[in-house]
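Notes from hallway chat w/ T.B., transcribed later so I don't forget. T.B. wanted the structure written out for a chain they're using in a teaching module, and asked if we could keep both sequence and C-alpha coordinates in one place. Agreed to drop them here.
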Amino acid sequence: MDPLPDLRPYLNTLRDTGLQLRYVIDTHTHADHLSVARALADATGAAYVRYATAPAREPVLRVHDGDHLDLGNVDVAIWHTPGHTPDHISLVVTDRRRGPEPWFVLTGHALMIGDAGRPDLAPTESAADLYQILAKLMTLPDYVEVYPGAYAGST
Protein backbone atom coordinates (compact mmCIF):
# COMPACT_ATOMS: atom_id res chain seq x y z
CA MET A 1 0.00 0.00 0.00
CA ASP A 2 1.26 3.49 -0.85
CA PRO A 3 2.11 5.71 2.12
CA LEU A 4 -0.76 8.09 2.84
CA PRO A 5 -0.15 11.71 3.84
CA ASP A 6 -1.97 12.99 6.89
CA LEU A 7 -5.43 14.13 5.79
CA ARG A 8 -6.29 15.71 9.14
CA PRO A 9 -5.35 19.30 8.18
CA TYR A 10 -7.71 19.12 5.18
CA LEU A 11 -10.49 17.44 7.11
CA ASN A 12 -10.12 19.84 10.05
CA THR A 13 -10.36 22.84 7.72
CA LEU A 14 -13.52 21.46 6.16
CA ARG A 15 -15.02 20.83 9.59
CA ASP A 16 -13.99 24.25 10.97
CA THR A 17 -15.33 26.18 7.97
CA GLY A 18 -18.43 24.10 7.38
CA LEU A 19 -17.45 23.62 3.75
CA GLN A 20 -18.10 20.44 1.81
CA LEU A 21 -15.98 19.17 -1.07
CA ARG A 22 -17.88 18.23 -4.22
CA TYR A 23 -14.85 17.53 -6.41
CA VAL A 24 -11.21 16.65 -5.87
CA ILE A 25 -9.31 17.14 -9.12
CA ASP A 26 -5.92 15.79 -10.19
CA THR A 27 -4.83 17.94 -13.11
CA HIS A 28 -2.42 15.26 -14.32
CA THR A 29 -0.66 12.02 -13.50
CA HIS A 30 2.23 12.73 -11.17
CA ALA A 31 5.58 11.20 -12.07
CA ASP A 32 7.53 12.56 -9.10
CA HIS A 33 5.24 12.26 -6.07
CA LEU A 34 2.11 10.59 -4.74
CA SER A 35 -1.15 12.49 -4.97
CA VAL A 36 -3.42 12.66 -1.94
CA ALA A 37 -6.41 13.48 -4.15
CA ARG A 38 -7.89 9.98 -4.26
CA ALA A 39 -7.63 9.56 -0.48
CA LEU A 40 -9.16 13.00 0.11
CA ALA A 41 -12.05 12.23 -2.24
CA ASP A 42 -12.63 8.89 -0.53
CA ALA A 43 -12.53 10.47 2.95
CA THR A 44 -14.99 13.24 2.08
CA GLY A 45 -17.33 11.55 -0.39
CA ALA A 46 -16.31 14.03 -3.12
CA ALA A 47 -16.05 12.96 -6.75
CA TYR A 48 -12.48 12.18 -7.80
CA VAL A 49 -11.95 13.94 -11.15
CA ARG A 50 -9.45 12.93 -13.85
CA TYR A 51 -9.16 13.46 -17.59
CA ALA A 52 -10.89 10.74 -19.62
CA THR A 53 -7.67 8.91 -20.58
CA ALA A 54 -5.90 9.21 -17.23
CA PRO A 55 -4.96 6.00 -15.47
CA ALA A 56 -7.13 5.73 -12.37
CA ARG A 57 -8.99 3.03 -10.53
CA GLU A 58 -12.75 3.42 -10.26
CA PRO A 59 -14.72 5.26 -9.13
CA VAL A 60 -13.56 8.33 -11.01
CA LEU A 61 -15.43 11.12 -12.74
CA ARG A 62 -13.79 11.17 -16.17
CA VAL A 63 -13.93 14.56 -17.88
CA HIS A 64 -13.27 15.67 -21.45
CA ASP A 65 -12.13 18.90 -23.06
CA GLY A 66 -15.00 21.38 -22.89
CA ASP A 67 -16.82 19.70 -19.99
CA HIS A 68 -18.03 21.87 -17.11
CA LEU A 69 -18.27 21.28 -13.38
CA ASP A 70 -21.13 23.28 -11.89
CA LEU A 71 -20.54 24.67 -8.40
CA GLY A 72 -23.59 26.90 -8.05
CA ASN A 73 -22.34 30.42 -8.72
CA VAL A 74 -19.04 29.04 -10.04
CA ASP A 75 -18.45 27.21 -13.31
CA VAL A 76 -15.26 25.25 -13.95
CA ALA A 77 -14.53 24.60 -17.63
CA ILE A 78 -12.19 21.71 -18.36
CA TRP A 79 -9.48 22.36 -20.93
CA HIS A 80 -7.41 19.38 -22.06
CA THR A 81 -3.86 20.77 -22.05
CA PRO A 82 -1.47 17.89 -22.84
CA GLY A 83 2.24 18.47 -23.09
CA HIS A 84 3.43 18.03 -19.52
CA THR A 85 1.53 14.74 -19.47
CA PRO A 86 -0.95 13.27 -22.00
CA ASP A 87 -3.84 13.52 -19.51
CA HIS A 88 -3.17 17.06 -18.29
CA ILE A 89 -6.08 19.47 -17.78
CA SER A 90 -6.38 23.13 -16.87
CA LEU A 91 -9.38 24.58 -15.05
CA VAL A 92 -10.95 27.80 -16.38
CA VAL A 93 -13.02 29.30 -13.57
CA THR A 94 -15.96 31.67 -13.97
CA ASP A 95 -17.71 33.22 -10.97
CA ARG A 96 -21.16 34.10 -12.29
CA ARG A 97 -21.61 36.71 -9.52
CA ARG A 98 -18.71 38.64 -11.10
CA GLY A 99 -19.97 38.21 -14.66
CA PRO A 100 -20.18 35.72 -17.52
CA GLU A 101 -16.48 35.82 -18.46
CA PRO A 102 -13.71 33.66 -16.97
CA TRP A 103 -12.02 35.05 -13.86
CA PHE A 104 -8.94 32.81 -13.59
CA VAL A 105 -7.33 29.65 -14.87
CA LEU A 106 -5.58 26.99 -12.79
CA THR A 107 -2.98 25.56 -15.14
CA GLY A 108 -1.76 22.67 -13.03
CA HIS A 109 1.75 21.98 -14.22
CA ALA A 110 1.17 23.14 -17.78
CA LEU A 111 2.77 26.34 -16.46
CA MET A 112 5.31 26.85 -13.72
CA ILE A 113 6.38 30.15 -12.21
CA GLY A 114 8.87 31.37 -14.80
CA ASP A 115 8.62 28.26 -16.98
CA ALA A 116 6.36 25.76 -18.71
CA GLY A 117 5.68 22.16 -17.72
CA ARG A 118 8.36 19.61 -18.48
CA PRO A 119 7.38 17.47 -21.50
CA ASP A 120 10.22 15.02 -20.79
CA LEU A 121 8.25 13.48 -17.90
CA ALA A 122 5.83 11.98 -20.42
CA PRO A 123 7.94 10.47 -23.21
CA THR A 124 4.97 9.99 -25.55
CA GLU A 125 4.30 13.72 -25.57
CA SER A 126 6.42 16.45 -27.06
CA ALA A 127 7.43 20.06 -26.76
CA ALA A 128 5.19 20.71 -29.78
CA ASP A 129 2.16 19.62 -27.73
CA LEU A 130 3.22 21.93 -24.93
CA TYR A 131 3.59 24.79 -27.40
CA GLN A 132 0.02 24.18 -28.63
CA ILE A 133 -1.45 24.36 -25.13
CA LEU A 134 0.52 27.52 -24.37
CA ALA A 135 -1.03 29.02 -27.51
CA LYS A 136 -4.46 27.86 -26.28
CA LEU A 137 -3.94 29.54 -22.91
CA MET A 138 -2.96 32.74 -24.73
CA THR A 139 -6.49 32.88 -26.21
CA LEU A 140 -7.86 33.83 -22.80
CA PRO A 141 -8.60 37.55 -22.38
CA ASP A 142 -5.79 39.65 -20.84
CA TYR A 143 -7.76 40.22 -17.63
CA VAL A 144 -7.96 36.49 -16.79
CA GLU A 145 -5.69 35.68 -13.85
CA VAL A 146 -3.31 32.80 -14.60
CA TYR A 147 -2.16 30.55 -11.78
CA PRO A 148 0.76 28.20 -12.46
CA GLY A 149 0.95 24.92 -10.59
CA ALA A 150 4.38 25.21 -9.01
CA TYR A 151 7.77 26.84 -9.27
CA ALA A 152 10.15 26.08 -12.10
CA GLY A 153 12.66 23.26 -11.87
CA SER A 154 12.54 19.80 -10.44
CA THR A 155 12.60 19.04 -6.74
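Follow-up for T.B.: The helical segments are 8-17, 37-44, 127-137. Might be a good example for the class.
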